[in-house]
Amino acid sequence: MDTDLETQIDLWRGYVQRRQAISPADVDELEDHLRGQVGDLRATGLDDEEAFLIAIKRLGDLDAISREYAREHHERLWKQLVLVPDGTASAGTPGWHELAVVLALAVGAGLAVKAGITWVDDAVLTRTIGLLVAPFLVGYFAWKRRLAARTVAALAVPYVVLAVVLTAYPFAVDGSTAVLAALHAPVVLWVLVAVAYAGGRWRSDARRMDVVRFTGELAIYLTLLALGGGVLLGLTTAVLSVVDIDLEPVMSGWVLPFAVPGALVVAAWLVEAKKDVVENIAPVLTRVFTPLTILMLLAVLGALASAGGLVEVDRDLLIVMDAILVLVLALLLYSISARDPLAAPGLFDALQLVLVIAAIAVDAVLLTAMTARIAEFGSSPNKVAALGLNLLLLVHLVRAAWLTLAFLRRRCGFADLERWQTRYLPVYAVWAAVVVVVFPPVFGFV
After folding, report:
1. What is the dihedral of CA 200, 201, 202, 206, to 10 degrees?
2. CA distance linking residue 183 with residue 326, whole number of Å
3. Is residue 443 part of a domain?
4. In the prediction, which pLDDT does 22 show?
5. If DSSP codes are grouped into helix, strand and coil, which group holds residue 201?
6. Which sequence ranges are marked TM in the entry (predicted)?
7. Which of 153, 273, 330, 380 is deepest in the core (most CB within 10 A)?
8. Cα distance between the two ends of the chain
9. Are both 357 and 289 inside the same structural domain?
10. How far apart are CA 421 and CA 223, in angstroms?
């Protein structure tokens, strides 16, 4: 199928996904049916646009489909918060069967981390801990999406390359390139998880936006699990301390090595099983944090302005500013993923434009400061990595601001803005891979 037809299908899929009564698995089934109809109609001599329109009409009215689906599966509407549904999971897998698979993978991730802590040097473990957990997340989605063997093999190749690089490179102890590799390797690994989550269809704009949405929801669930687990462990520790039982060895030796990677796997499952629960609060979260983030960026600009000359700006302050920009980008992406693409431009879209412009201003100041520091003190792995990231962020944010302004002026559709985000994301993955694989030998592994 050509690009225009794929774009139309992606837009249709995004619209269908926002119907609360239709689950992701059912959207996949509807999309497969739609593609089959389009293929049959094209075979009769119709062009792509005619085939797509007729296929859509044959699917029937979407609101009617939603109402009918809700009547047939009404138990899903009030059992969303139940741990395991009464019905079946996608692809006919019983809910308890899937829960057993998830728990087994969570325990497996914990065992892998525990073995790494026991047998691997601390410096190597810091760089490779993601390698121990990622296969279990990829394994869950490979099982859930029934990935083809060739897709799994394709995911294994970069994983093996990354593992060889992180373990075989002669990194200097506490060297800059080792720290950079440890920070950027999870980004590369997350791409592998994302491809598995997307069912191997990474080229689809809609699937990439699904990954953005999944990542945001995963962060929410991880936060909730961390808060709940922290309270539970704190209460347990307090009670046992009354009877002079020290829980610290058990906590550091067993609970944390299993709880942290296990929570990641369980959170991924919760996103899959309880997608609609988070989607209901996602727009609220983005509307609350967008104005607060704007205020934070204005404070950041004030801090940079009061820090003196750009060369004298403290390096730690620059690092914190970079972290803030990454968080702003994450908020922007999640806000776009949570927005109804069919809604008309409104006040919140204008606020997002202000957010992006403020981020561009901060990024421009940071780039100027970094360039001045490199000119004054010379280059280093950290400086080049930070400079590259800020350049990538600047391009991303400037284009996003331009498209948001055009959308507010009704000169382009929201799909254009959404498409820019999803098609630019692989650039960050490529840069992360460059930092991990290329930087160490170029800078002598220091």
Report:
1. -140
2. 13
3. no
4. 58
5. coil
6. 99-117, 123-143, 152-172, 178-198, 218-242, 254-271, 292-311, 317-338, 350-372, 384-405, 425-443
7. 273
8. 48
9. yes
10. 25
Determine, yes or no, domain membership for 85. no
- Is residue 212 within 8 Å of residue 337, measured between CB atoms? yes
- Alpha-carbon distance of 335 to 333, in angstroms, equals 5
* Residue 46 per-residue DSSP state: -
Distances (CA, A) of 55 to 118, 313, 437: 58, 60, 47
Query: Hey, what are 342's tokens?
Result: 């069919």
What confidence category does residue 66 fall into, taking pLDDT thresholds of 50, 70 and 90? very low
Strand partners of residue 441: none
Same domain for 224 and 161, yes or no, is: yes
Residues 265 and 170 in one domain: yes
Alpha-carbon distance 152 to 207, whole Å? 18
Look at residue 273 and tell me whether its pLDDT is greater than 60: yes
With a cut of 60, say whether residue 64 has pLDDT above it: no
203: left (phi over 0), alpha (psi -120 to 50) or beta: alpha
Measured in residues, the chain has a length of 446
DSSP string, 7-41: HHHHHHHHHHHT-TTS-HHHHHHHHHHHHHHHHHH
Q: Which pLDDT tens digit goes with each residue over 78-118?
A: 334 334 444 444 444 446 788 899 999 999 999 999 999 99
DSSP 113: H
Q: How far apart are CA 331 and CA 334, in angstroms?
A: 5
Q: What is the 3-state secondary structure (H, E, C) of 203-256?
A: CCHHHHHHHHHHHHHHHHHHHHHHHHHHHHHHHHHHHHHHCCCCCHHHHHHHHH
Domain count, the chain: 3
Position 27 scores a pLDDT of 72
The β-bridge partners of 116 are none
User: Which range marks the domain in which residue 293 is found?
Assistant: 277-412
- For residues 145 and 237, membership in a common domain is answered with yes
Residue 207 to residue 386: CA distance in whole angstroms: 29
Are residues 213 and 329 located together in one domain of the fold? Answer: no
Type of residue at 332: L
Tell me if 164 sits within 8 A of 115, measured CB to CB.
Answer: no
Cα-to-chain-centroid distance, residue 225:
18
**Tokens encoding 285:** 């979260």
What string of DSSP letters covers 70-87?
HHHTTHHHH-TTSSS-SS
In a domain, residue 316? The reply is yes
Token pair for residue 288?
């609350």
Residue 31 lies in a domain: yes
